[in-house]
Specification:
Helix content: 10-25%
Structural class: alpha/beta
CATH class: Mainly Beta
InterPro entries: Hexapep, Hexapep_transf_CS, Trans_hexapeptide_repeat, Trimer_LpxA-like_sf
CATH architecture: 3 Solenoid
Number of strands: 17
Largest sheet: 6 strands, mixed
Strand order of the largest sheet: 3-6-11-14-16-17
Protein name: Acetyltransferase (Isoleucine patch superfamily)
Oligomer: single chain
Number of helices: 3
Shape: globular
Organism: Laceyella tengchongensis
Keywords: Membrane, Repeat, Transferase, Transmembrane, Transmembrane helix
Radius of gyration: 16 Å
Pfam families: Hexapep
Order of helices and strands: EHHHEEEEEEEEEEEEEEEE
């Protein structure tokens, strides 16, 4: 069964939380992260892309993990993203670690395990953990934790099947 997201909530007063963005995070951090993420979206060399994420954004990304063209990492808190080894992040996927609402903003780590496949055009929301050997179907919106070896798909993503753990 899929579990709820783990996010920390921060209430705001007055204008909406996004309008107060630079009271919660430095402008220059956002500027730098945006620049690196834009470059990384178009870099065709997987090892260079991984280097940019690890070195410039302080993300944890395992060996032989491939992040496809146009994938977008969270611009505000990319350091809250951890991706295991030998994982594929599909074309145009978005991984978010923040959400700014009217009266609060929320932050949550995104942890993607080893040997995971995230299909193209998927969105991973803050506070989600995707277990080892899981698969996320193309175009899915992952709103809850995904257990190891599960196949999820849809909006919101739901478990289609859970594979046996033997023979992985």
């Amino acid at each position: 069964m899929m579990e709820m997201r783990k996010t920390e909530r921060f209430p705001v007063h007055g204008s909406n939380a996004l309008w107060q963005l630079y009271q919660t995070i430095p402008f220059w951090k956002v500027f730098w992260n945006t620049l690196i993420i834009l470059i990384a979206r178009y870099v065709p060399f997987l090892s260079m892309k991984r280097w940019l994420y690890r070195t410039c954004l302080r993300m944890e990304i395992g060996e032989q993990t491939a992040v496809a063209l146009m994938a977008t990492m969270d611009v505000l808190y990319p350091e809250k993203i951890r991706i295991g080894k030998n994982t594929i992040i599909g074309y145009n996927t978005t991984i978010l670690t923040h959400e700014y609402l009217i009266h609060e903003y929320r932050l949550g780590d995104v942890v993607i395990g080893d040997h995971v496949m995230i299909g193209a055009n998927s969105t991973i929301l803050p506070g989600v953990t995707i277990g080892d050997y899981a698969m996320v179907g193309a175009g899915s919106v992952v709103t809850k934790d995904v257990p190891p070896h599960a196949l999820v798909a849809g909006n919101p993503a739901r478990i289609i099947r859970e594979r046996a753990t033997e023979g992985t």
